[in-house]
Specification:
With 505 residues, this protein is α+β, with helices and mostly antiparallel strands. It has 5 domains: 3-91, Uridine Diphospho-n-acetylenolpyruvylglucosamine Reductase, domain 2 (2-Layer Sandwich); 92-224, Uridine Diphospho-n-acetylenolpyruvylglucosamine Reductase, domain 3 (2-Layer Sandwich), CATH 3.30.465.10; 228-345, Alpha-Beta Plaits; 352-461, GMP Synthetase, Chain A, domain 3 (2-Layer Sandwich); 462-500. It is 35% helix and 21% strand. It has helices at 3-12, 21-26, 48-61, 114-122, 141-147, 155-158, 201-205, 240-253, 266-274, 300-316, 331-337, 344-349, 369-382, 384-394, 432-450, 460-469, 475-488; strands at 17-18, 41-43, 65-68, 86-89, 96-100, 105-109, 126-127, 165-171, 177-179, 214-221, 223-224, 228-235, 260-264, 290-297, 320-321, 355-365, 399-408, 412-422, 425-426, 429-430, 455-456. Strands 15-12-14-13-17-18-16-21 form an 8-stranded antiparallel sheet. Strands 5-6-10-8-9 form a 5-stranded antiparallel sheet. The protein has a 4-stranded mixed sheet with strand order 1-2-4-3. Helix 1 packs antiparallel against helix 3. The two termini are 22 Å apart. The model has no long low-confidence stretch (mean pLDDT 95). Bound molecules: flavin-adenine dinucleotide. Flavin-adenine dinucleotide binds at residues 30-31, 66-74, 77-78, 90, 110, 133-135, 139-140, 142-144, 146-147, 149-152, 209-210, 214-215, 345-346, 349, 361, 458, 460, 495.
């Protein structure tokens, strides 16, 4: 065993360190299968103190450290870039530390999942509002705050999960431990506010993709779950992209505080039904695009009033209402009442077991998303020749398109789009060119979407470096980010390589 291994073992104990080849490979990938980086060592620390000691050693040894929650970043962000480094698996730190029921704030360790957190809260009639990402059954709150995640429900009303952040405990790359917001005042007992006591330093770590520090303790606002709710789904008429954008805009103009509003394109409805993943849509005669809303209220009267306004918008835009039951195709009800918000995307990722999703998640203003989706179709046609090469091996053509378009607080939407392809291993043979082609196509699609001015929130390995490579950052923004990184992490040990911040390898 190396000296480094023994030093680390002393910190976390024998049981929570490994350099076994199968463990290292188990931590070498995220959602996609084209990006891989095998770590040297995997650690499962139990608290901030242990992480602090690990980071001090990593500085002495000049070795990269990559924090990892559930490891389901879509851009390879929670595995090393290249074969090297220490992966810090945060999932052992999954305890609820305090529920301040009077002030409606929960504090938990960063490795806890949205599912576990909300299961606990529901016994008190509370929820986190924005329920994190669509992967919330396993995604950790630390990984999601590092991404500005949205998509697991509630983001039209509550915004991204970083909106409800109150305070963070972070271990800086140097090993120092800090607390932000109200907790910067050492006389404050419990976290109660993010802003004040100086600048919003919690904000520095929101969406940082794990480059500025390791989040260990997170305090979030929680909310009483309203008693009344309506969930409705509608079929869209022709020109569904433009009509859905118009509907989402009208919801905003009227100031109606929908909990969720989502547009699901026709391709998605057709393929998921065809593959038997959404039995609720089997009986739909026309497999057209759908739009749904979920609205909450504290009284029956308030609910009726809001539903009346929303239904008028839907009627004016010539949509057709589906029945109220889930079996009528009412995905809105499944989403809200049966945790469909945390299951839907898993269905999408598993459409064809032999396929690999190379995806993208970004924000755009409502008014430009139809244009972005049309251009993604155009991109697909322009790459017909490359798609053919993959078709000739796999017997199926890769699918380019968009998943749900979700309304976010403000006038934004989240677009999940991508290119779902096949891998190089097919029918017992390896076709290496497919991996290279997939990477090339993925890059090309992401560049195309970036040039529409899209704002990426999850960036990981791939997107963070692509933004730099294609010159998408303004020079001033990039330089500021770099100088903050240098100040906090002079040896660039944390998430080395992201945003092309390499340091000495
Ligand atoms: C089926 C499916 C559905 C998804 N749906 C969505 C969605 O709706 N919306 C969405 O935003 N994303 C979605 N994702 C992507 C991803 O799951 C989320 O972004 C999620 O928030 C990541 O959480 P995680 O715990 O897996 O983070 P990881 O992938 O482990 O880490 C994410 C990033 O944060 C860093 N990090 C992790 N923990 C810490 C920590 N404690 N301190 C500092 N840095 C840390 C990592 O280094 C990495 O850069 C989906 C993925 C899948 C497979």
């Amino acid at each position: 065993m190396s000296d480094l291994y023994n030093k680390l073992k002393k910190i976390v104990s024998d049981k929570f360190v490994s350099n076994d080849i199968y463990v290292r490979h188990g931590y070498s990938r995220n959602v996609d299968i084209v990006l891989q980086g095998v770590p040297d060592i995997v650690l499962r620390p139990k608290d901030a103190q242990e992480i602090s000691e690990i980071l001090k050693i990593a500085n002495e040894e000049n070795i990269a450290v990559i924090p990892r929650g559930a490891g389901i970043c879509e851009f390879g962000g929670s595995k090393p870039i290249g074969d090297n480094g220490i992966v810090l698996d945060m999932k052992r730190m999954n305890n609820i530390l305090n529920l301040d029921e009077e002030n409606l704030i929960i504090t938990a360790e960063a490795g806890i999942s949205w599912g576990k957190l909300n299961e606990y809260l529901c016994y008190f009639g509370l929820y986190t509002g924005c329920m994190g990402p669509g992967s919330g059954m396993s995604a950790s709150i630390g990984g999601s705050i590092s991404h500005h995640s949205v998509g697991g429900g509630g983001c039209a009303k509550y915004g991204a999960c970083t909106n409800q952040l109150v305070s963070l405990e972070v271990v800086l790359p140097s090993g120092e431990i800090i607390e932000t917001g109200s907790q910067a005042n050492k006389f404050s007992n419990l976290p109660f506010n993010r802003f004040g006591n100086g600048p919003d330093l919690a904000g520095l770590f929101c969406g940082d993709n794990g480059i500025f520090g390791v989040k260990t303790k997170i305090s979030l606002q929680v909310f009483p779950k309203p008693e009344h709710v309506e969930c409705k789904t509608f079929q869209l008429p022709r020109k569904e992209r433009e009509v859905s954008a118009k509907i989402l805009n009208e919801i905003r103009y009227r100031g109606i505080d929908v909990y969720d509003a989502m547009y699901l394109m026709d391709l998605l409805v057709r393929i998921t039904t065809q593959e038997g993943l959404m039995p609720m849509w089997n009986q739909l005669k026309k497999k057209r695009g759908l739009i749904f809303y979920t609205i909450e209220a504290n009284t029956e009267v308030e609910l009726k009033e809001k539903v009346k306004l929303l239904d008028k918008i839907m009627e004016d835009n010539k949509t057709e209402s589906l029945g109220s039951e889930i079996s009528d195709g009412n995905i809105a009800r499944w989403h809200y009442e049966e945790q469909g918000h945390w299951q839907f995307y898993h269905n999408l990722w598993g459409i064809f077991p032999s396929m690999q999703p190379l995806t993208a998640e970004c924000f755009t203003p409502i008014n430009i998303f139809p244009k972005v989706l049309n251009d993604i179709d155009q991109w697909d046609m322009e790459h017909e020749e490359d798609m053919r090469k993959i078709f000739n091996i796999a017997g199926n053509r890769p699918i380019t398109g968009s998943g749900p378009i979700i309304l976010i607080d403000g006038n934004n939407v989240e677009i999940t789009c991508g290119f779902t392809s096949f891998w190089s291993y097919f029918n017992g043979e390896i076709h290496d060119f497919i991996d290279d082609l997939n990477l090339e196509l993925w890059k090309s699609l992401l560049e195309r979407v970036t040039k529409h001015g899209a704002q990426w929130y999850m960036m990981g390995d791939f997107m963070s470096r692509l933004m730099v490579d294609i010159g998408a950052y303004s020079e001033e923004f990039y330089n500021l980010m770099k100088s903050i990184k240098k100040t906090l992490d002079p040896n660039m040990i944390l998430s080395r390589g992201k945003f092309n911040f390499w340091g000495d390898k």
